[in-house]
């Protein structure tokens, strides 16, 4: 079973605690639409991870490892942990400095809020290039099971630092990544851009000149990316920068740019396609926040909770199910998440969108049980039929899906206010 499954209840418990704390402190650190979108990209990350397990690290280790270290020795585990964090720093740093790597990593930075759901906002395309940065570990001879374990520990550590509720932590700030110095990393203020890349240890940033301290007397932090996403579609969140680079490569007349723009400095675009990007006034434009009624938000949260439960079940069984089944249900989940995002940013056709979503899910169960005999229990059919019918009736009767009940509107407010 994927070990992330065990962490899911803890993740959501901590989110609940943070939401309650936010309400008690009368802060505005959460928005339903933004939180759902962040969690949606995280769900795509873990489900696509089932499909795209490349095993390149193990392949390199098995064929060209220079040493054969004892996988049970404590010093090897400590060495593996330190090396993984060191190479994570460079993986993370280059993810901000190279166009094609930023196209992947930018997903994590798209949220204009900063809370624990932001921590779970992860890319689904990191498998394409991130493995390159850990080749030295495999070549040295750090066993795959150690690499996988310390990578997971590194990822889990980073969860708690995505909060605005915890202030500076004294001497911790000099050694470890903390909420304070990681808030800086997610800021798009000019002073803070491209700083504090560490995963567990902030020492790498201090050593390589990329550290900056959070300045409480500086202007309010604004979160998100300089080129804003302005969409609740989690699939588009993963691919919009790739498509932009592809369009630039097609449009430019320079063959040099066609081949190299992918690996140029982040933000580079051919001069015959676009003028160089200037630093925008980050306080002048509005956060993406299409207006939605409370009823629609509650409905969306309920539907999303069902998808979270379905994803958890899928991750629990995916190691024992056929690859074709896993691929099919990953695609269906993605389509369901797109539909949920549609609910929160459109004001027409919601009943049709929901009807299609339920029919699609039911049809997928039918197809799955036709190909992989009785792999999905009968109650799943009944649940889709009942929940779908009830949901459509609620949308129709409540009026929250009528045109005009979900008009787009945006709110200007500084993050952290």
TrEMBL record:
Domain Fatty acid hydroxylase stretches: 77-210
Segments traversing the membrane: 6-24, 36-60, 72-90, 298-317, 323-344, 356-373, 379-397
Primary location group: membrane
Compartments, record wording: Endomembrane system
Pfam annotation, one family: FA_hydroxylase
An annotated GO cellular component: endoplasmic reticulum
GO MF term set: glyceryl-ether monooxygenase activity; iron ion binding
Protein name, per record: Fatty acid hydroxylase domain-containing protein
Organism of provenance: Capitella teleta
């Amino acid at each position: 079973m994927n070990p992330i499954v065990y962490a899911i209840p803890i993740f959501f418990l901590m989110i609940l605690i943070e939401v309650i704390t936010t309400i008690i402190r009368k802060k505005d650190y959460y928005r339903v639409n933004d939180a759902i979108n962040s969690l949606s990209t995280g769900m795509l990350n873990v489900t696509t991870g089932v499909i795209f397990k490349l095993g390149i690290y193990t392949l390199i280790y098995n064929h060209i490892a220079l040493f054969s270290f004892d996988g049970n020795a404590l010093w090897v585990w400590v060495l593996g942990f330190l090396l993984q964090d060191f190479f994570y720093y460079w993986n993370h740093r280059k993810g901000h400095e190279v166009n094609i790597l930023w196209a992947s990593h930018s997903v994590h930075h798209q949220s204009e809020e900063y809370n624990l759901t932001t921590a779970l906002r992860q890319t689904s395309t990191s498998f394409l290039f991130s493995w390159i940065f850990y080749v030295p570990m495999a070549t040295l001879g750090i066993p795959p099971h150690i690499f996988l374990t310390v990578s997971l520990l590194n990822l889990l550590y980073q969860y708690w630092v995505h909060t605005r509720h915890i202030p500076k932590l004294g001497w911790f700030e000099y050694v470890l990544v903390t909420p304070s110095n990681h808030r800086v990393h997610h800021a798009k203020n000019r002073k803070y851009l491209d700083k504090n890349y560490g995963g567990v240890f902030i020492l790498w940033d201090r050593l390589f000149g990329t550290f900056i301290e959070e300045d409480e007397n500086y202007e309010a932090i604004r979160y998100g990316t300089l080129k804003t996403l302005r969409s609740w579609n989690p699939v588009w969140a993963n691919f919009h920068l790739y498509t932009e680079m592809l369009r630039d490569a097609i449009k430019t007349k320079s063959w040099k740019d066609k081949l190299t723009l992918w690996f140029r400095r982040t933000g580079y675009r051919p001069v015959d396609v676009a003028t160089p990007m200037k630093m925008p006034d980050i306080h002048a434009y509005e956060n993406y926040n299409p207006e939605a009624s409370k009823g629609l938000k509650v409905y969306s949260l309920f539907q999303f909770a069902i998808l979270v439960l379905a994803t958890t079940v899928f991750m629990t069984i995916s190691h024992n199910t056929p690859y074709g089944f896993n691929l099919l249900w990953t695609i269906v989940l993605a389509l369901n998440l797109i539909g949920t995002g549609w609910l929160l940013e459109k004001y027409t056709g919601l009943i049709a969108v929901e009807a299609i979503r339920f029919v699609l899910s039911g049809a997928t169960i039918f197809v799955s049980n036709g190909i992989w005999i009785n792999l999905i229990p009968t109650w799943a059919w009944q649940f889709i039929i009942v929940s779908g019918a009830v949901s459509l009736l609620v949308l129709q009767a409540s009026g929250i899906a009528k045109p005009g009940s979900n008009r787009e509107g945006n709110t200007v407010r500084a993050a952290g206010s």
